[in-house]
Every structure is written in structure tokens, then in C-alpha cells.
């Protein structure tokens, strides 16, 4: 599938039926999710980092792109790649390297490696450069980190999301948005909205009814798998 096919998966969805994108961290997990019938996948950088032995945000760009390429090669469904804040690469180089992996989309954060929010107009300009370089060849999911970094007011998230959509983002991802903020985000943001599924949060159908278009999991699925593996290890030890 192409980026256009992946883009189509985000539109015309019924309330209560968001696009659910499991997050593989290696080729094996990607095949498990694809074999289960999911139409597309979205890599989570934190889970990929853990699988490679790095802390979140510390994976070298070369290793991240290589990991994404292995995931893409292992499945027949489209894969979107979490490229964190872009590794300091110019827009043209970032787009070229993502396309080399075979991924059809990217997730790009608007906080820097020091976890400070990037000025919104500067981030919008970067997204516009990426869109200009990629054309329609990449689906761009623009992460909005205000809630994640402790800004409870939805206003700044909405302001950023609107700028990012105007700059060419296909979808916005106000990560960590509380459940009660989702209806307002839906009313005031044009285009698809990504939400993070987490323990104790509403399930995907409920998130969809609140206005969410797609659901991703961050490193949650990896942590669940690690828990099962630890139980297996304890059983083996008797």
C-alpha cells in the first residue's frame, strides 16, 4: 500500500471505529500484528529503543532507520515510522531516509530532546518543509506535546494543531490529552486526530465516539509483552 492508501484509512470512518495501529518494535512483533489482520502499523520510538538496548530518545538515527526498514520488510501492510523530533536532520534528508526504509508515514514530535516545546511557528515551518520535500509520498502525523509536558489547558494544543494542519500535516497527535478534552479538540481541529491508548483510558471504540480518528499505543504493547515474558521466565526458574 502507498501513502495514499494509508491516508485513505484515516477518512470516512464511523464514530466508534477509529483506525487502530499497533506499535511493533521489531520484525517478529510486526508479523504478529499483521497476521492478526491489522491494516497498518505505526512504530513507537520508545519501544524500538528498548528493543535495541537504548533509553527512549537515545537511539542513533542510523539504528532507528535500520530498525524501521526491518519492520517494513517483514510485513505486507503499510508502516508509519516514529522519527522522534527528526534527529536534527534537514527536511530533505529526513524525508529521503524515511522513504528509503519503505515507510509511508512519519510521526514527528514538537518537543526537543531536552523535552522543551519547540516554538509553534518554527515547528509549523519545519512541517511545511517536510511536506514540500515529501509531496504526497508520506503521511505526516504531527505530535503535539503540550499535555505531555504539563500544559493542562487545551488552548495551546489546539493552536499548535491548527498551525500544523495548515502547514500540511495529515493528522495531529495531542499525546496525553485527557478524555474530557477530546470533544473540544474534535470541534476545534480540522482533520484526523490521533490518541494514545493507555491503561485505565477508554478503549478504542469509546475514543472514537469522543472524536478520535486513530489510536496508537506508544510502548504499551511492548511493556505488556515484557510482562508476559517475565512471567514465563519466572515459571522456567520454578
* Count of separate DSSP helical elements: 10
Strand order of the largest sheet: 2-3-4-5-6
- Element order: H for helix, E for strand: HEHEHHEHEHEHEHEHEH
Report low-confidence residues grouped into runs of 5 or more. Answer: none
CA radius of gyration is 17 Å
For the record, give the distance between the C-alpha atoms at the N and C termini, rounded to a whole number: 46 Å
Write down how many β-strands occur, each being a DSSP E stretch of 2 or more residues: 8
The major pleated sheet works out as: 5 strands, parallel
Describe the protein's architecture and organization.
The chain is of the alpha/beta class. It is 45% helix and 12% strand. It has ten helices and eight strands. The strands form two sheets. It has a five-stranded parallel β-sheet with strand order 2-3-4-5-6. Strand 5 (139-144), helix 7 and strand 6 (171-174) form a beta-alpha-beta unit. Helix 2 (27-35) runs parallel beside helix 4 (61-74) and helix 5 (91-101) crosses helix 6. The longest helix has 18 residues, at 220-237. The chain is globular and about 55 Å long. The termini are far apart. The relative contact order is 0.15. The mean pLDDT is 96.
Sum up the structure in keywords.
five-stranded parallel beta sheet; three-stranded parallel beta sheet; 10 helices; alpha/beta; single chain; 238 residues
